[in-house]
Amino acid sequence: MPIVGQWKNPAVRRCYGKAKFPNIATAEKVAQRDSERTGDLIIAYQCFDCLRFHVGHADRSQILARQEPEARLIELPTACPRCSGPIPEQRRIAAAEAGNANVFCSNRCRDKQSKSKRHARRAAQLEWREG
């Protein structure tokens, strides 16, 4: 049920111009057809505002959730971005399952990288304040 009252129904603004489907099966058929036509992943979803079904492009997390872990593993680096050492396969698999693209060879390298980035951010803030 849409929101009514003094807020002037925000559900209408968010859903305005979107195609509304009465059931998920119809929306899935349209999403499949549009995915084949464009080559992008287009999904069907139920709108929280109007409770109807819409179709739209999937975000990165939805794309990763539909990929096999082995496919995600191919995208991850094999060398540590900090020390260029090899990343153990177990760490790469864990990162692929979590959808994390930042993989380091060890926790030590990860911590040192985050520490150096934190110092760089602080130095940039100080420079901006003084400048």
Write up this protein.
- With 131 residues, the chain is mainly α.
- The protein has two domains: 10-63, no CATH class; 75-130, no CATH class.
- Helices cover 53% and strands 8% of the residues.
- It is built from six helices and two strands; from the N terminus they run H-H-E-E-H-H-H-H.
- It has helices at residues 10-15, 24-38, 60-66, 69-75, 89-98, 107-130, and strands at residues 42-46, 53-57.
- A two-stranded antiparallel ribbon has the order 1-2.
- Strand 1 (42-46) and strand 2 (53-57) form a beta hairpin.
- It is flat.
- The N and C termini lie far apart (53 Å).
- The model has no long low-confidence stretch (mean pLDDT 83).
* Average pLDDT taken over every residue: 83
Helix/strand-derived category reads: mainly alpha
Any low-confidence stretches, pLDDT <50, length ≥5?
none
The string of secondary-structure elements, in order, is: HHEEHHHH
Total of DSSP H or I helical runs spanning 4+ residues: 6
Percentage beta strand: 5-15%
| N-end to C-end Cα span | 53 Å
Total domain units: 2
Radius of gyration: 22 Å
Walk across the major sheet and give the strand order.
1-2
**Outline type:** flat
- For the secondary structure, the number of strands is 2
What summary fits the major beta sheet? 2 strands, antiparallel
Helix content: 40-55%
Topology of helices and strands:
Elements: H1 10-15, H2 24-38, E1 42-46, E2 53-57, H3 60-66, H4 69-75, H5 89-98, H6 107-130
Antiparallel strand pairs: 1-2
Helix pairs in contact: 4-5
